[in-house]
Amino acid sequence: MPRYRGTVAYVGTGFHGWQVQANAARTVQAAIEEALAGLSGAPVRVEGASRTDAGVHADGQVIHFDLHEARDPVAVRDATNRRLPSDVRLLEVLVAEPRFHARFDARLKEYAYRWSRAPVVPPREAPFVAPISPRADADRMREAAGRLAGTHDFAVFAVRGRGRAEESTVRTIHSVWIVENENRLAAVFRGDGFLRGMVRSMCGVLADIARGRFPPERIAELLEAGDRRRLAVKAPAKGLTLSRVEYATSAPGPAGSPG
C-alpha cells in the first residue's frame, strides 16, 4: 500500500480537537479520514504529527496515510479537498517513504500564540487571537520567555491524566521569541515536542507576567518547584496555532508567521 504525506491547515473553532473521539464526531482527523475513505472506497487511517486540542488551529499540521492503490498526489489532494468541510484543507500531498511516520519522525514543532491589545478586536481576527490588556508589557514577557528555553521537566505545565503514565515529561525548547507589532503580541515556540496543554499553560503565565501580575522569575520558580498552585489560568485555545512541523530530511508545510 503506497504511503502519502500531507500538509494540513484548519480553523479549529468548530472542531473537538484533532484526534478521533467516540463522543465527539467532529474532529479534524475524523473529517480527513471520511474524505479519504470517500476517495478510496475503503477506510483510511490518518496519523497526525500533533494532537491539537479543541479550538486550536493549524497552518502546517503534517499527516501520513496509506491508500489501497497508487494515485497521483495532486489528484489525491484535490479530490480530498472537494470532500472536506470548508474549515480544513490539504495544502499539499506527496508520496512518502513506506516507513515515514508523521508523529514519530518529527524533529521539531513550531507553535505560535497570538494576543491582541486592541480595545476592540475586529471580527475577522477574533477567532485567532486572545485579548490582553493594552498595558501588557512585551519586554516583561520577553524576559520571562527566555527562561523557558532549554531542556527541562515541563510536567508543571502539562495537563494531568492524559497520555501514557510512563511518558517522559522532559522536553527541549530550542527557542521562544516574542514578536510585537502595534497592538499584536505573539509568542513563537520551537521545540522537539510539547506535552498536552503545555503551550497554552505557559502562555497563561506569560500573559500574567506581561500584565504585571507575576514577576518574570515566576517561570523559573515553576520549573524548579513544580508547584501547580502558582500557575496562571491557561490561555484560551483560539490564540494557538500549530505553525510548522520539521523532519530530518525535509520540512514539509509552510513556515508559520507570528503575524
What letter string, H or E per element, gives the SSE order?
A: EHEEHEEEHEEEHHE
CATH top level class name of the largest domain: Alpha Beta
Number of helices: 5
CATH fold-level name of the largest domain: Alpha-Beta Plaits
Helix content: 10-25%
Sheet with most strands: 10 strands, mixed
CATH superfamily of the largest domain: Pseudouridine synthase I, catalytic domain, C-terminal subdomain
Question: What Rg, in angstroms, do the CA atoms define?
Answer: 19 Å
Number of strands: 10
CATH architecture of the largest domain: 2-Layer Sandwich
The total number of structural domains is: 2
Low-pLDDT residue intervals, each spanning 5 or more residues: 251-259
Shape summary = globular
Task: Explain what this protein looks like in three dimensions.
- By secondary structure, the protein is α+β, with helices and mostly antiparallel strands.
- It folds into 2 domains: 3-95, Pseudouridine synthase I, catalytic domain, N-terminal subdomain (Alpha-Beta Plaits); 107-247, Pseudouridine synthase I, catalytic domain, C-terminal subdomain (Alpha-Beta Plaits), CATH 3.30.70.660.
- It is 21% helix and 29% strand.
- It has helices at residues 28-40, 73-83, 138-145, 198-211, 218-225; strands spanning 3-10, 46-48, 57-66, 88-95, 106-116, 130-131, 150-153, 170-181, 184-191, 240-247.
- Strands 1, 2, 3, 4, 5, 6, 7, 8, 9 and 10 form a 10-stranded mixed sheet that branches.
- Helix 1 crosses helix 2 (73-83) and helix 3 (138-145) crosses helix 4.
- It is globular and about 60 Å long.
- The chain starts with a strand and ends in a 12-residue tail after the last strand.
- Mean pLDDT is 93; it is low at 251-259.
